[in-house]
Specification:
The structure is a single chain. This protein has 114 residues and is an alpha/beta fold. It has five helices and four strands; from the N terminus they run βαβαβαβαα. Strands 2-1-3-4 form a four-stranded parallel β-sheet, with helices on both faces. Strand 1, helix 1 and strand 2 form a beta-alpha-beta unit. The protein starts with 5 loop residues before the first strand and ends in a 10-residue tail after the last helix. The C terminus is likely disordered.
Length: 114
């Protein structure tokens, strides 16, 4: 059995107790680290290369969040790390799980390169 692939969850720093994306990912068999957008670069510097980044957007973020998020998406595109946008508000209403396999393919299901 291979090691779990790690997924980085980046959000606006406000996390609902009743709806944790990290808990959903754990149920799906993924290890995850959750951080705010402001700390994302620092976290990326100290963790192993993530299989994907889930960028959890919300209406609260505003223009500053959108600008920083666009920069993160561009840097990760150049690094070859997929960034999956997750709309926090609509996903909570729909209770839709994140389909990582469908979004980024089988890479996250394979053993990590060590």
């Amino acid at each position: 059995m291979g090691a779990l692939q790690q997924v980085l969850v980046v959000d606006d720093g406000i996390r609902a107790v009743d709806h944790s994306l990290a808990a959903e990912l754990a149920e799906l068999g993924y290890a995850s680290v959750t951080t705010s957008l402001e700390a994302a670069d620092d976290v990326l510097a100290v963790i192993a290369r993530p299989a994907a980044i889930l960028l959890q957007t919300s209406a609260r973020g505003g223009a500053v969040f959108e600008t920083r998020a666009a920069g993160l998406r561009e840097r990760m595109r150049l690094a070859g790390i997929p960034v999956i946008l997750v709309d926090a508000e609509s996903d909570r209403r729909a209770s839709a799980p994140v389909d990582l396999k469908g979004c980024i393919g089988p890479y996250v299901l394979n053993e990590p390169d060590l």
